[in-house]
Design goal:
By secondary structure, the protein is mostly beta strands. The chain contains 1 helix and 11 strands, in the order αβββββββββββ.
Length: 168
């Protein structure tokens, strides 16, 4: 009984140290890619990993269609990180949201690459400011497009592309 009481007191003490606004990290893994995200104030922080030296991408859509995805593409080339906020307007046709009249929702961009893999980190505004984005709300269901390529050129085709249903 004494052991049980000590265990309860310890667990209560640990729970008391977790801030009320703590947002746990969520994670998915599929086809070699790993995507982690966490709510952080008015943004959602992401880390995306792929087994490639080319670009990698994630896309958000409320349905399973490819067209209509808010597509975030990133690459690291010669030590420089490039991440682009895009929208898929048609098959094989994705454009920057700025060129379509929208507002870039990305910030806090970082990344690195080694001989076998690329990792990018970025934040996305959780509230959509235009029709090219979605409100990224906790407990909201999305179809998450994930893809990567062997090339850094964002117009080069993917070698892996699939989607997975997630709940933010």
């Amino acid at each position: 009984m004494k052991t049980y009481a000590i265990l309860l007191i310890t667990l209560y003490g640990l729970m008391a140290t977790i801030p009320a606004n703590f947002n746990p990290v969520k994670k998915i893994e599929k086809n070699g890619m790993k995507i982690c995200w966490q709510f952080n104030g008015d943004k959602v922080d992401f880390e995306v990993f792929a087994p490639t030296k080319g670009w990698l991408a994630i896309g958000f859509n409320e349905n399973s269609n490819l067209v209509g995805n808010n597509l975030i593409m990133g690459s690291v080339e010669n030590g420089k990180v490039r991440v682009s906020d895009r929208y898929i307007v048609g098959f094989g046709n994705h454009q920057t949201v700025e060129s379509l009249g929208g507002v870039n929702h990305l910030s806090d961009i970082e990344g690195e690459e080694n001989k076998e893999e690329t990792t990018i980190r970025f934040s996305v505004l959780k509230d959509a400011l235009d029709e090219f984005h979605y409100d990224l709300l906790k407990d909201k269901e999305f179809h998450l497009l994930i893809a990567y390529s062997q090339e850094d050129d964002f117009l080069h085709h993917s070698i892996m592309r699939t989607s997975v249903e997630i709940v933010f």
